[in-house]
Every structure is written in C-alpha cells, then in structure tokens.
Amino acid sequence: MAGKGDFWNQPLASPWTQVPLVRDARGIEWEQGAINRNPLKVRERLERAVDHWVDRAREIPHLSTLGPPLPKPRVLYDLKGGIAGMAATFARPRALPEQWIRIHPDLLARYPVRMIQQTIPHEIAHLVIDWYLPKVREPHGPEWMGVMIWFGRPPLAFHDMEAAPTSRGRVKAAGASLLFEAPHGRR
Q: What stretches of 59-176 show up as alpha helix (H) in DSSP?
C-alpha cells in the first residue's frame, strides 16, 4: 500500500482493495486516512481521474470509426442514498449529446480511492457505450465489460461501500450490495 501522502499521485490502476477500512467514533466506515482529506482536493483528484479514463477510452481500437471522440462529461456531486455513481447521455435534437456523471459526495469523502479507481471507470465505461453503441440496452453487458477490461478494472456491477446513516440514524446493512448507478442509456 502506498504511503500516507501518496494518495494524490497513486496510479489509477492500483488495487483499491488494499486500502484499509476503519470506523470512526460513531461507527461510520472510512478508508484509512480519508477523514483528514480536504473534500475539494479529493474532488479535484476525481476530476483528474475522469480526464484519465476519458483519454484511455479514446485509445480503444476502432471506436474512432464509430463516431467523434468521447467528450469529457460534466461531473455533479449530488447523489444520495446507496448509489455511488450514475452516468447518462442525453440526446438533444439538432445538438451534440450531453454526457454527465453524478457522484455521491459522502461516499466520495469516505471512500475516495474506491470511488476514483472503480466508480469513475465504471461510469466512464457506460458513457463509452452510450456514445459509440447507443442501441446497446444491457447496462452491464459484454460491451460494457469489455471496456472495463480494457481499462484494467474488474467489471463489477455493484460496490461494497456502506451507505451513510439516514436522518433517522439507520445504516444500510454491512456487506449489502449497492448499485453504482441507476439505469443507463440515452434518455
């Protein structure tokens, strides 16, 4: 595992599963060291990761023959509940489609390495399929899996991060599978 100060320069292909998990005084799970990180700097690191995975997607052989280069998506930090990330492509008449990724800010704060190394490539892979193969309807089908494998990331449809306590103090059961995102495809 990289040293304490190496988070910002850690290679994106590193195994996020090597980051130890700890619990704070309230019993909330965090990646070790995440509680002390500046959330704005974590967001900057996430957006650099978006650029990285978009660039990697543009290197996939033969995709350039299917259409223009994949654009950089807009990133929003507005998800709640147990969904870690969500990607969508909106097709507008007489205009280029717009793509965006929505991120759960609390999960990003508590699990920055997992979000940056697995959730972001997961969502970029959806945008690749939406952009180049818009008729594909199976969100985690073989096309999406192929992009994830190209990225060198495991094609996991679910994450293992704990949802934050709700306003009533309940926490999603530990170990429960939660979705990365809502359904995908052109809307």
A: 105-110, 112-114, 120-132, 142-151
- Encoded tokens for 27: 């019993």
Q: Can you tell me the distance from the alpha carbon of 97 to that of 131, in angstroms, rounded to the nearest whole number?
A: 8
- The residues, ordered by sequence, that sit 6+ positions from 106 with a Cβ below 8 Å of its Cβ are 80, 164
Give the gyration radius of the chain's Cα atoms.
17
Q: What does the pLDDT look like over 136-166, one tens digit per residue?
A: 888 899 999 999 999 998 888 888 888 866 5
Residue 182: count other Cβ atoms within 10 Å of its Cβ: 13
Q: How far apart are CA 23 and CA 26, in angstroms?
A: 8
Bridge partner residues of 101 (DSSP)? 75, 87
Residues in contact with 8: Cβ distance below 8 Å, sequence separation at least 6, in sequence order:
41, 45
116-130 pLDDT, tens digit per residue, is 999 999 999 999 999
Residue 147 burial by Cβ neighbours in a 10 Å radius (0-12, 13-18, 19+): buried
Dist CA 145 CA 47 (whole Å): 23
Residue 130's alpha-carbon distances to 7, 70, 97, 109, 174, in angstroms, are 31, 10, 10, 28, 32
